Amino acid sequence: MKYVVFLCDGMADLKIREFDNKTPLEAAQTPNMDYYSKKAILGLVKTVPNHLSPGSDVANLSVMGYDSDRYYTGRSPLEAASIGVTLSDNETAFRANLVTLSGEGEYEELVMEDYSAGEIKTADAKRIIEDLMPVLNDEATKIYPGVSYRHLLVLSDKTVEGKLIPPHDISKRPVKDYLPKDEQILSLMKQSYEFLKDHPYNIQRVKEGKKPASSIWVWGEGKRPEMDSFLQKFGVKGSVISAVDLIKGIGILTGMRSIDVEGVTGNIDTNFDGKALACIDALREGDDFVYLHIEAPDECGHRFEAENKKLAIELIDEKVIGPVCRYLEESGEDFAILVAPDHPTPVSTGTHSREPVPFFAYCNQRERKGDLYSEDTAKKSGLYLEKGYELMEKFLKLDLWK
């Protein structure tokens, strides 16, 4: 039996006037999803407990079958694992976004212009982070380059004061009401700004019409987690495919193989074809399970881009779900697929929300009378899983079809 999860990050949404009061998922042309969902089990699943923030970390742990109350220690330790940084017991990891701050005057008077520094390319970001290392690093402080705008800060013997706010939650807003209460962290952010605001590379980026990487923004703290093996937990050999360090880190910490795909960006310009091919290759080479994560709908939601979000969903359907399912059909093996977002990212708000998300699960040996896949049809199905981490076991054991 082969299993594939198509995790369409942030795909769930609210109805939008410009789509004739449909969600992007409802408005999108998705013939492959339609074909399988009409013979599938549909339902809603709550991936984020009420007491936790609706981040992709908590939500993806849930979809992967891990109870956040037991396993979650923070976002950044998962990303640390992805880039090969092993945390000691006395170290705390943080996400350090490269962001664009606009305006003049003191740091407190600036505006969060872009949480991703214009979706800065990985090679460009690495150059900037490496220049920052001599400025910020000491015996108790280390910054490491990651992917695109997503980087890692590690502090020793650190207890964080106050709450750290994700930069994608405050797009286009003045930062003064969202700055860290922690003086050490705020000082690091200010140091980075003073160094980067007149950095020659940023001056060149502005000349080229690109957004400068004018500061780091620190958030997502956590300690090293202890994760159970996915193989031992569920009895299947698996891989993860993603452009995002967070998802790769979860895979690595749970003993799965993290498959790199050339040209993946985490956005609508990603290498959709390459992801599909990598999934097919993993299944052909003997993997029982592939968790194929696609970030593009989430990034479009954060950027208030309704048309691009709809387009991202259509590209996932055409270039990823279609080819992978054709391979599964032609392979002659029994298979099951699960299609779901991790959380909603409504384009009207530009940030994550915690509502239950729609899913459908199809098994070629257990076809059912389903429906077109959408937020509404999933709700009308009457199937609701309160504990998100139970979905994976029910999917892999085919209990959804009983």
Structure description:
It is globular, with a radius of gyration of 21 Å. A hairpin with an 8-residue loop joins strand 3 and strand 4. The protein has 2 domains: 248 residues, 3-Layer(aba) Sandwich (Alkaline Phosphatase, subunit A); 132 residues, no CATH class. Helix 5 crosses helix 10 and helix 11 packs parallel to helix 13. The chain contains 15 helices and 13 strands. The strands form 2 sheets. It has an 8-stranded mixed β-sheet with strand order 9-8-10-1-11-12-2-13, with helices on both faces. Strands 3, 4, 5, 6 and 7 form a 5-stranded antiparallel β-sheet that branches. By secondary structure, the chain is an alpha/beta fold.
